[in-house]
Design brief:
Blueprint lengths: L7 H7 L2 H12 L2 H6 L5 H8 L3 H13 L3 E4 L2 E4 L1 H6 L9 H5 L5 H4 L2 H7 L13 H25 L7 E5 L5 H9 L4 E6 L1 H14 L5 E5 L11 E7 L7 H14 E11 L1 E2 L7 H13 L6 E2 H11 L2 E9 L3 E7 L2
Parallel strand pairs: 3-4, 3-6, 4-5, 6-7, 8-9
Antiparallel strand pairs: 1-2, 7-11, 10-11
This protein binds S-adenosylmethionine (SAM).
């Protein structure tokens, strides 16, 4: 193998923002939805979107190169993940989540200044949440969270459990899905006061109001509802530093009955911090959002659990390359 190096990889990183921009534009003009609905040629796509032929040509070339689109003979088709998650009206449509961080684009290009200013608060963007912004936020998280929650109930057997505490439960995806899957289970979603208004709406829609309750509170302080025999905290990890996460895990330990279990699901770095990239980037995202959060490694998470007193502590892949799950049992 040749040891010669060149600038290809560096150039790709320097212009990686172009891929995000193309994805946003394709979603803006419902490109993948049109393809799914039968617009399989560039002429048909130009008609359906009202865009000029040259722009469709550019967008299709980029989408083919990014493996978002493919050829089926002479006709265009969506890549399998695009067909599953980026076609409007489909059950698994995740467009709101893909667009969720678009408003942060300008902030990402100011991270040098932000590092120099170092102007952060404990809760970051969550300080300013309103009921309306929480509703919008959780429209995005729900478009991905319910899928993750289905994976959770397929992975973890809670059939002998009575009460799940869902810390930072947002749309209630984990709680709603868990009580639907396990008939003896009840759940409490603890989230910030404006958020639980939106949570209640998801609970009502799912018709599980008799089994899922909410508590409006800040999980960085105060004791948690108790006793419970399962605690889940999902997709909150990089928002906070070690002190806060360690404190949450300690208070979760106290809220659990003996034999109870905790699952911390989040973007965790490998111990050498060489990836996954997404985990590192969610840590950097906290600079953009103005909190003190950062990415945590798998062994740091195990450390929070062991220090709190958990046993059988173990981190496993939850969604390989993205999310890991740290488990611990209270003796
Ligand atoms: C990315 S969402 C994840 C929601 C849900 N766990 C899921 O996986 O779908 C993060 C959630 O954590 C909540 N959260 C963040 N900081 C919090 C705090 N200090 N106290 C309570 N909830 C908090 C947010 O309001 C938001 O609902």
């Amino acid at each position: 193998m040749s040891n010669r190096i060149d600038t290809t990889r560096l150039q790709e990183i320097a212009r990686a923002y172009t891929a995000s921009a193309v994805l946003y534009a394709a979603l803006d003009v419902s490109l993948f939805t049109h393809v799914s609905n039968g617009c399989r040629t560039e002429a048909a796509l130009a008609d359906a979107t009202g865009l000029r032929d040259v722009d469709i040509n550019r967008l299709v070339s980029c989408s083919l190169s990014l493996e978002l689109l493919d050829w089926e003979g002479e006709e265009l088709c969506n890549a399998p993940d695009v067909e599953a998650y980026l076609v409007e009206g489909k059950e698994r449509y995740a467009g709101p989540w893909m667009m969720f961080t678009r408003p942060d684009v300008a902030g990402w290009f100011q991270i040098t200044e932000k590092m120099r200013e170092a102007d952060a608060t404990k809760l970051g963007m969550y300080e300013e949440l309103t009921v309306e912004s929480a509703r919008k936020y959780h429209q995005a998280t729900a478009s991905i969270g319910f899928g993750a929650a289905r994976r959770f109930v397929r992975t973890v057997d809670l059939s002998d459990r009575q009460h799940l505490l869902d810390l930072g439960g947002g749309s209630g995806a984990y709680s709603i899905t868990a009580v639907e899957a396990f008939s003896s289970l009840k759940a409490t979603v603890l989230d910030l006061p404006p958020v639980v208004v939106a949570t209640e709406e998801y609970i009502a829609d799912a018709g599980v109001g008799d089994r899922v309750a909410t508590v409006g509170a800040d999980f960085t302080e105060g004791e948690f509802p108790s006793p419970v025999d399962v605690v889940v905290m999902a997709s909150n990890l990089p928002i906070y530093d070690s002190e806060v996460i360690g404190g949450v895990v300690e208070r979760a330990f106290r809220a659990l009955v003996s034999g109870g279990e905790m699952h911390l699901i989040g973007e965790m770095l490998d111990d050498d911090r060489k990836g996954p990239v997404d985990a590192a980037m969610w840590g950097m995202n906290e600079l953009v959002c103005g909190s003190e959060g950062r990415a945590h490694t798998r062994s740091e998470c195990e450390g929070y659990f062991r220090s709190a007193g958990f046993v059988e502590v173990e981190v496993t892949d939850f969604v390989a390359g993205t999310l890991a799950r740290c488990f611990g049992r209270k003796p």
